[in-house]
Amino acid sequence: MADFSSEFWNLYVIILTVISIAACAVLLIVLSRHRVKAGQEIETTGHIWDETLQEFNNPLPRWWMMLFYITIIFAVIYLVLYPGLGRTTGLLGWSSSGQHIREIERADKEFGPLYAKYAAIPIPALSKDPAALAIGQRIFLNNCAQCHGSDGRGAKGFPNLADNDWLWGNSPEAIKTSILAGRQGMMPPMGPALGSPDAVDQVANYVLSLSGSPHDAAKAALGKPAFAACAGCHGEGGDGNSAMGAPRLNDRIWLVSGTVAGITETINKGRHGVMPAWQEFLGEEKSHIVAGYVYSLSQQK
Amino acid sequence: MRVNAETSQEQTVLLYAASKKLYPRSIKGHFNTWRWIFVGLTQLLYYGLPWVQWGDRPAVLFNLVERKFYIFSLVLWPQDFIYLTLILVLCAFSLFLFTAIAGRLFCGYACPQTVYTAIFMQVERWIEGDRAKRMRLDTHGSRAERGLRKTIKFLIWALIALWTGTTFAGYFTPIRDLSDLILTNSLGPWQTFWVLFYSGFTLLQAGFMREQVCKYMCPYARFQSVMFDRDTLIVTYDDERGEPRGSRSRKIDHRAAGHGDCVDCGVCVDVCPTGIDIRLGLQYECIGCGLCADGCNMMMDKMGYPRGLIRYSTQNAITNRYTTTQLRAHILRPRVLIYAVILSMITAAVFGTLILREPLKVDIMRDRGALAREVEGTFIENTYQVQVINLDERPHTYKITVSGLPNLRVASQDLLNVPATSTQLFVVRLQSPITDLERLEKGAHRLSMRVDSLTEPTISVVEKAVFFNPR
Lengths: 301, 471
Known about the structure:
The complex is a heterodimer. Chain A has three domains: about 1-30 and about 50-95, no CATH class; about 110-180 and about 275-300, Cytochrome c-like domain (Cytochrome Bc1 Complex, Chain D, domain 2), CATH 1.10.760.10; about 185-275, Cytochrome Bc1 Complex, Chain D, domain 2, CATH 1.10.760.10. Helix content of chain A is about 55%, strand content about 10%. Chain A has 13 helices and six strands. Chain A has a two-stranded antiparallel ribbon with strand order 2-3. Chain A has a two-stranded antiparallel sheet with strand order 5-6. In chain A, helix 3 (about 95-120) packs parallel to helix 13. The termini of chain B are far apart. Chain B is elongated and about 110 Å long. Chain B folds into two domains: about 25-355, no CATH class; about 360-470, Immunoglobulin-like (Sandwich). Chain B is of the alpha+beta class. The interface of A and B includes residues 36, 58, 62 and 63 of A.
């Protein structure tokens, strides 16, 4: 309503509403009295159905008419108390957004102490509390499972939260930071830096050799010197760098693909993993509980 | 509404009218007895059922908060709403059937409006007296006597209404708890509201509105004409036998003197709870209670005439003068037989599905976001959220088995524990070897998951799901 530049629609609604209610009242009063000439019978409505069926024009019960009048009075009282006449706000000042805010306040008052209790418990202890785990699982299933899977074991491009290989650090604080602030995992395309497709192929095989996975030994030996370009982020022996989110290359856990073709694509095109920031969505306390649940996933061995 | 022909001027006529107060007269007789039998049966059931226990819970409880309806051994969940539909269809067809046979049996004998009005009117008779006395009290009685009698009557009505309202609430909250709360004056605000609301409603409808409900509010009155035909048993006045009416001495041969059987005593009008004259024929206000028949029979007995001047008969029987055999033959007509067949089928369906109902529901939701994943380079894995609803009142342990893809197996915990009457969500991982999947088409494959109860081996459910074989 604030978008309109004139009062026209506001007045239009007000006038139509008031006229309608007034018209109902007028109709009721005027039509309930009937001037009748002497001797005239007001027996039937005049129409005959099925050859013999007629309907008498009997008076309505008085209580029925009273109910009609009560609805008119109700309408008037309602429109005075609540919004309904155009842009008026009503004497009680009710609004649906106000009701929503009140409901949030009520929920905060009821659940606030519960979350505060959990916020005070450190994550490792939280990961052993069954009630906190149940809440954490529910939040996880609603928000995290779409990417990380209902069991948290990830998918192609989405980390497995139930193993002990962490991109950004395995401390509870690191996990909570990932949830609250999100993460941007950027691997630049290294194809041009390495020079030729053959060079990429050799480096890919060398990477596989780091974890003892099946590879071509000859190509791996040729790729080892070129790996220096990768060691800057991924570490000398492919140990990874949790400060940069660079994965460990010397284990058999692969974020996207562990095949030669897959690693080749990774080197050529780079990778960009995005973990959204949940601070605004979940808030501090719920993220804390979810972090406890996520931490518990990797502790079940 | 007829305007007086003698008036010479115009008149202002009101198109609404304050309802005339009715003073129905009490009558004893066959149909009155049947009405009171039904009052007794329905009220015994209504007032008694909430107090019946089933183990440690009420036998009949519609727990709206927990979203579970308990009916003896049956526990119905919101997912069982379809049974309510079936029961409503069952009620509708039984209504069509017995209305086609004998008219407004429900209205006259079993309807709560009739039942409570009958109870309340009986109280009125005890306190204020029968018809003549009540009329005298209202027109000529002293203020003091009127005030006293009506106050006592109102208080008794209020007590009955309060007990009725509390019982109604007792179908939704265990009535033993409810009565404890009432006696210790610790009812919550909503409970207080609902008990008072139902009580007030009973008081209003049975004490004051009475026949106004039947005449103006109830839709059944209006569409009865659709369910009747000329072979429906209705309360009829035998016009041919009764006319011409008029008072005469008991001793004469009235037929010879040109009188019909009707002595125009007006008892049939006096006893009518809706205040109509059945001698005018079938009217929509008539609730088929048969009190006019009782009244007329009493009069016929006094005059020494045969009973049945007002009786249950059909329009065809009266017009064509059927014998009893012919009348009965006409009752079993195609419409009635078809309704009976449909009703039996629906009854069988309702009871069949309820008896065969499996107290286990399983819903499988595949993780769509995380399509599929490789595990250890050997398996392709899909993750599922499996919702298991244990409808039984005992805890169960269930075992999952899967089939539909080569060497498909459950990689997560395959034994699920679910407490009594509760629902639990389990995350289930299914794996199939890559070497087997390479030979299959890429994309979705159907699988079936079987959930067996180890606690009660007869309980078993098979659900379909999909396994995604990635490119």
